[in-house]
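Co-fold these.
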Amino acid sequence: MDNRFTSRRHSIFADSIAGKPRSAAHNNSFLALTMAFCLVTCSLYSHVTMWILLIGFVAVIIRFLLYLGLYQHIPGTRIINILGIISGVLLVVMSRNMTMLSAMINLLIMASALKIMVLHTQKDLLFIFISVLFLAALGLIIHDEFLFTLFYSGLVVVLLITLATHFAPSRSVSQSLTKTLQLLAQAFPIALIMYLLLPHFSPFWQVPSPNQETTGLTDVVKPGHIADLAQSAELAMIVRFTEGPIPKFHQRYWRAIVIDQFDGESWSQSQLQRAYQQPLLAITHPQQHVISQPYDNIHLTQYKSVLMANQTQYVPTLDAIIDIKGNSHTPNPYIITASNHAFNSQPQVFTTDYSAISILNVNHQRELTQLETEQYLQLPPRSQKLDYQIAHQNPRTQDWVTELTKQNTTLKQLITAFNQFILSEQFTYTLQPPLMPENMVDQFLFTYQTGFCSHYAAAMGYVLRLAGYPTRLVAGYQGGEQVNDSTLMIYQYDAHAWLEVYSADLGWQRLDPTAVIAPQRISDGLAHALSNKDEYLAEESFSLAKYTHLPGIAQLHRLLQQGSAVWHGSFRTFDNEDKQDLIKTLMQQLNIEHPAWFGILGLSLIGSCLAGYFIYGRTDIAVHPDHIKWYLQCRQLCVSRYIQTSAETDSDIQHYPPQKFVDWLTLHGTSSVVAEMHQITTWFIQHEYRATGDNHLTGKQIKAGYKRLKRLAK
Amino acid sequence: MSVAYLQQLLSVRQEKWLNRRIPEAVRYQLDNQSIFILPTKFGYVFLLFSVILFVFGTNYQSQSLIMLSVVLIALFIVHMFASFLNFTRLYVSVGHIQPVYAGTTAAIPLHILPSQTARPTRGTLWVSFWKIKRYQSIELDTLEGPANIRYFAENRGVSQLPRMTLQCDYPLGLFRCWTHLQFTQPLTVYPQPIVANLPLESANKLSQVKNSTHIQGKSLSLNQPDDFDSLVTFQHGDPMHSIAWKHLAKTGNMLRKRFVGTSPQQGYLSLPMHSNVEKGLSQLAYQINQCHNKHAIYGLYLPTQTIVPNHSEAHKQACLAALAAYPITRQAFRDGQ
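Predicted complex below.
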């Protein structure tokens, strides 16, 4: 008796619904919420301070133990309050070095972690729900990518399931999931119409950037840097070609940064290049190009790019860029520098879109000024260090070049000689080159003879400059994976470095030593070029691109890529103009002239959607055949008429078998009603238990009986 | 015109309005008339939060965030319908309520009747009574048989239950549906037994003193030393001194020592005129239990009702019910205040 009572939860009182303590053990909603918290924290881990991650970790462990019932005590409120105050103060002190978004993320994670530790009421649950939902929203701002959008959508569903399991705790998780998805499916059409009807606002106020760290290419090329970049499977940009076919793989050199200062260890941008990137100076340099190849190879190409946020101002464009503009309505922030690469006058803190026009296979040509010639011939400084060291700055290379130039007097000959040298010495192409701290070029050319594209470019650039040819290093991307007929996806591992050498007749000519040593890198991409396949994405254990040789993974990878391309191509960049266009097209299709009518149509659509749901919810699905339905109606009528005089409860009577029900009615009802009900019951029993006649006919019979009964019972 | 007075006035008007809107009934199929629906506090926060997301999305020009906020707002609207539809499927009735003594808790069997639509009501149903902020929950999905709602019966009497408030936050807690139902099923509350030694009067004796203000005469004392007979289960209202303490300490079962008199006694119990009516009724309740347990043949004489002597469980219940139904006097009302 006692057990039955305690197991039935309705014997417990609560002074308020929100404050009623709930059991932590085997509480699915608490577990789902903890998991959602876990997922959102993992997705934002790079923005979270170590000690806050630790608090989160402890909170999750405590919650899991509580769920399993291995641990029964939630930490005391006092401890949590003290912990909260300490963490809060710490966070305030530390937040001075954080961006607003980072500070917010840290604060929310800390608050929800502490709340998860003490979670036992509905109030706590709802607080954490809102916090985690907010974190997911911040995640959407930071990771503005297709996969992350899918991830956060899933997370929102998990969060809603948390609510569903909390408000109907005795339903199974799958039932809660069904209910949640049903609600979302109902909400979605309404959301779509609302989205279309809502006007497009420009930002209400200037917001700080979500990220600080730059990703992708930088303006300093250390030999190892691009090799590091090549380990990353992160998406760099998506390009959709709007005019002309996609250029061949080996023609896809995406120029981003021109680098012209070499200090013996690394290449970086000179003051000159930086000056060129000033908007005012860009205008004074008209772009000229020289044709060095057969006319058939030359064509114009037009494309739209989505460049992932990278905090830099570099804009990768194909070959010779002649025009570039942003897709937003703000003044065009893009400029084309004197070195013929595109540059964004604002840091790319968000994913940016631009459309550009390039000419393939022409060389950029402009007569060099004295200043430029000096810069492009610049060699590591000789004055700062002690004399004997200067003499030995890459001494072997210097000697070798002196030898080489004696035999090879023209640029063409010198290039051929260099290529022959690296081929005959059997240089190898690797993503994990050894460290070359001193006299990098010497060590690379004569000791290790192995390296990545930046090694080859850096070494060859130095050689050419020693020989007296103006040379510059270009960093960017090469290749890109084709997703469909018009779309390319370029990943960080497509990062590449190559050279451009100047001659008066041919202008800036592209030279890629990597093409000599690893031709597959240029024709098929990194994955094919590496002799040691283990090096490919060695640090990206979770990247699908790494496992494309496994069955199914390749298709999945491709599907995700295509989804991503569509998402970036249409939805993410969907702006006011697109919306207006869509509305206009819809209005034309529907023959609507005035925008107000469109609004009214939208609102009435929402209204009819809701009315539809309502009517659907109200309709009774006919679960009973006719005769049962009408028989039950008859019973209902008798019960409601005579229950007052009866000692039995409603539900008792509802459960009486047919004959017993007539007996009950005999005691309470008038004789005419009893007689009628008796007749109805006889029909019903005959049909239901002796299987005579068909459902419809008996149904009609009983329905007629019901009508007579109704008259009699009045 | 104090605040309390205004509140009282408002409360009376509210009750009048409710009586018109949701008249008393034996069972309720909830409908547009009887359901109230408003967003919960959390629902408002959720809506505000969605708008904040929209502002964020606009500021960061993130279409996915704008879409998320719009979906959440649409979900909020859809939720209102889902909540309401779920609650309209509720079909409830209250069964027969077992009488209880004042100062104890009555178990009110709330029947969730098979829904008249194809789909049942889901979620957690919170039950409370008018102006009493104590909630009990019912899991509608796993409920079998009636749910026992506990109601603390403070005062003696036969009365209707106060309005029963049912509320439900299903499915996501953004909206709350509630209703205030006035069930007609009566609740009988017996007077709280108070130990007393009231006499069993003989019928003739009683008729003689019917109109006098004081009951006199020789009584048949109930407290004659009897012989020990057996141990029986302790019941409410039994004297504490009869509890078999040794047995309780050993086994944990509350048993009472039963004594048998030499012969069954017979007579009437009547309301003592000298004391407070409520107290008298309480004493009578005690004595009725005593008489019942001692197998006396007893009747009840009240100014309003007379019950002829008998002995049975039904008789006991009838006597106690008569006590419960005894009109509440002005004096009691004053004391109650």
